[in-house]
Amino acid sequence: MIQYNNLYDNANMKIIAERGSVKVFEHQKDLSIHSPSEAIGAYYASEMNMRKRQVLIELNGNAYTISAGAMQWMSGSVDMVADVKGIGDLFGKALASKVTKESTIKPKYSGNGLLMLEPTYKHILLEEVSDWDGLVLDDGLFLACDSNVTQKVVARTNLSSAALGNEGLFNLCLTGKGVAVLESPVPREELIEFNLQNDTLKIDGNMAIAWSNSLEFRVEKSGKNLIGSAVSGEGLVNVYRGTGKVLMAPIK
User: Fold this and answer.
1) CATH number attached to the domain at 13-248
2) Which pLDDT tens digit goes with each residue over 26-53?
3) CA angle 202, 131, 166 (to 5 degrees)
């Protein structure tokens, strides 16, 4: 049995979000500074909500898959294995890592105990995957997920979405039931959530950070013709069409 002191009862570490087995800690101040100049920078960083955040996963007989290199410490009866089911699966994951810019092998931790991830200045989102009808992620968002969640690669609807929309051709898609832990450039309260019911959303630029796999994604002219697009000054826009959800960052 392990007794934890100065973890849950640490006055400088505030739990700002939790879902299922996952808790998000936020360090209210950077207490590891060593000079007055560092103190000034740390003070203004904290005032602007630039704080270190860490994810704690409480394992109770379940398992979580995390991004390679994301583990800081683990305690208790926790085992780590490479989440690979054979040579074919390894080859598929290696290919997927090349096209989605995610790590080839994501370690899986299972058992009973605690798993703490490395601190990050990015904002942490906790999303229930089953609410999304397939959760498609922008590059670099994945941090961890319940190991019951299936990871797969999905391609854009058309080649123009990669060549013209300033987006990659492939993305990581999470399906099933369980919590996904994502690293976002902006906090959840600033993200705009669109719920489409057989409708269309057009976004100028790659501001969408996640969307439902049920949506058709294309890149189209902002106007009905090239002259109209040129006059509007917008040119090409990312188009999400159908029924599903989109998370958009107002700034990125």
Assistant:
1) 3.60.160.10
2) 999 988 888 988 888 888 888 888 999 9
3) 30
